[in-house]
Amino acid sequence: ALLVIFLMLFLAILATELISNTVVALTFFPLVAQAAAALQLNVVAVLVAVSLVSTAPYMTPTGSPASAMVIGEARGYRLGPILGLGLILNLASCAILAVWAETILPWLLG
Question: Between these two residues, 57 and 52, which has the higher pLDDT value?
Fold first, then answer.
C-alpha cells in the first residue's frame, strides 16, 4: 500500500510541474479516493497528502511562480542541475508524505 501511495503522489507532483496545482488536485482527488478506498486506506489521509504534494513542485520553473522568479533572476544557472535536484526533492517529498499518509495522519484523524 505504501508503494501505491508513493506512486500516486509522484504522478501528482509530476503533473504539478506542468499544470496548475488546482487542476492537479481536482483531477487526482477522485482517482486517489477510489484507489485508497479499494486498498482500504484512510481516504482523507491520502487526499491530504495529494493536496500537499500538489503544492510543492520543485523541478521546473513553471511549477510555481516563486521558482520562476528565482530562476529568472539567477544568472548562469542551467536547467539540467535544477531538474536533477528538483527530482530528488520531489522523490523525498513523495516518500515522506506517503509514510505520513499511511502511519501518522490516520492516527491523528482517529
Answer: 52
CA distance 41 to 39: 5
Q: What is the mean pLDDT of the chain?
A: 89
Q: Burial-class residue 92 by CB neighbours within 10 Å (0-12, 13-18, 19+).
A: exposed
Give the pLDDT band of residue 89 (cuts 50, 70, 90). Answer: very high
Provide the whole-model pTM. 0.86
DSSP string of 15-81, one letter each residue: HHHHS-HHHHHHHHHHHHHHHHHHTT--HHHHHHHHHHHTT---S-GGG-HHHHHHHHH-SS--HHH
Q: Around Cβ 41, how many Cβ atoms within 10 Å?
A: 20
